[in-house]
Amino acid sequence: MSIQKTKIPGVLATILILLPALACQKGNSQSSGAETLSSLVANLQSWTQQIPQRGEQLYSSTGVPLPAVPLSTNGRYIVDSNNNRFKLKAVNWYGASDTHQVVAGLDKQPITNIVALIQNWGFNAVRLPFSNVMLHNNSPVADADVSANPQFSGMTPLQVYDQTVKALTDAGIAVVLNNHTTLAEWCCGFDYNGLWYHTGSSLAYNSSTDMWQGDWLMMVNRYKNNKMVIAADLRNEVRSQRKGDTYIPDSPNWGSGDVNDWHKAAQDLGVLITQNNPDLLVIVEGINWWGLIPILGSGERPHLKPVKDLPVHLPVANKLVYSAHNYGYIGPKNNGDPNTSGGNIMYREMDTNTFNNTVYSEWGYVVDPEMYYTTPVWVSEFGASPSTTNPQDKQWLQNLVNYLIARDLDFAFWPLNGNDEWGLVSSDWSRTLKDDWRFAPLNQLLTYSGNQGQSVFAYHFSNLSIGNGNDNSSTLYDDWDNGANKGTCSDGYRLNGLSQDQRALCTDVNYGNLWAQNRSYNVQSVNETSTRYHGTGDWAGGFTKYECPQNYYVSGFSKRWWGTSGILCAQSNRSLGNSCRTLWYNQGDNRTSTRGGDWASGSYKGQCDDNEYVAGIAQRNGSASALLCCR
Hints:
The protein has helices at residues 12-23, 33-50, 111-121, 132-135, 157-170, 209-222, 262-276, 352-362, 391-406, 439-447; strands spanning 4-7, 56-59, 65-66, 72-74, 77-79, 89-92, 125-131, 174-181, 229-233, 241-242, 249-250, 281-285, 320-325, 377-381, 410-413, 461-465, 471-472, 485-488, 494-499, 503-507, 521-525, 544-547, 552-560, 563-571, 580-584, 590-591, 605-607, 613-620, 623-630. By secondary structure, the protein is α/β, with parallel strands linked by helices. The protein folds into two domains: 70-80 and 93-416, TIM Barrel (Alpha-Beta Barrel); 461-630, no CATH class.
């Protein structure tokens, strides 16, 4: 992708937006006016370090203005590098994951004509599926599959995929890479593509989680220099699949730690992707189905419900996006097969209130602001037939469109393809289809901008859980407490709360990015002396205490079998106040602030005020029981 550049303005407007929030932060009540002003300036400098600087306007080789890539997230929104909201309005263009292993339509029209149809509809991005088998096929594609594009003759499927990516991005259309299937076949039934790996069958292609990771790392590095390749959509519709050559269901889970743990697989791969290509968004779809489908007609569709108990954490916190799918002919416990669905309700059979409440509980809740799980949600598949005569299908699509607009969510229609009954272009791929009943709701959705292009400001909250292992949300990969389970906040975030069962709340509220530029840190563990740094004396008599030095704050904690065993103290990029208090929570919740939501449901928890930082932790009998809250 060749680009042209021009300068655009700086960040003054964003700084002015932040001033009221910065003015609310308080230090020692006895600080002088000069100290207060100095603190405000330091805070302002810290905040501006977090704001992506306005850089250069990019243009494609054809003169099309491009978004300010790379993209990131800020709270519930995807944003560009100027911190302006980028609304992902996408369409799916499939074929590379299917039998022919080539995006459909290249036998009908030149690729530039197809790209023009995507632009004509008003989409700014394409979700582009691929199969793992396609990546390893070194045979030339059939000439018949690219007959309208003879320049692709003799290319391998992956090389044609390369050319498709280039044609889209040269036109200013963003591309989301999507691992749709393992085998090159139609998706998505009770087959061999439900999980991200497939082993134990007589099929020619077997894969492991390691092979899946390797395929993805090849792809993210392959397009590393094309910044309009914006995201890696890790896997399509994770669901129960056939175990080996049997019809025994092999079901995914979320958090068990075994080979079928989709949370672990997605998080592990997400870490590797952010290390290899930190510009990419990492898109994690929820679980589309778990349980015994379709043999006994049992199971359910959890989508993103498990996120509330166990969010995905990446070491680059502003790169995670969740996704979900919705179709009228399926339902929360309806697999779409009339013979095995047990008559369970479909989404198209729901009245408007039931539909809204259902999708909110499945995935809509994730975009609620200032929660420990708040993340953008991309509804990356939905669609309907233009020839349907069922009024329920039409009402379902309108219900979904209304919900996407009301919640200002990102989306991707399924599909573009003219070879598909549900496609948005004609069967000869020569024109857009805007003369059927779907046009009205789709046009309503495409023309609704929400707060697109507006600067985004959000405080951020995330939880940590180290009951079963490490939970590292930081790019600090040091083993700072060898042999212990460790939880580490995102870079610059501070610990704001801790529970007795080893869960924590991290945030940047009021302080912004707090970590010093030199990334210095200090570890206080059971082997340390009981030095008091804050002039508070024995602030938790009879309890084991870990306390950070002055101008350090708690950004992580560790545990061994007997309980809390240490804290990670990060050096602050400013002088921190020294007015401290003990906050006890050994006999019940004690939360000075309740922001972030119920981040440790079922356990006693303590949470400092928004204007405070945690300077120390006290524990006894294996349980954290008090926080030293300072300001």
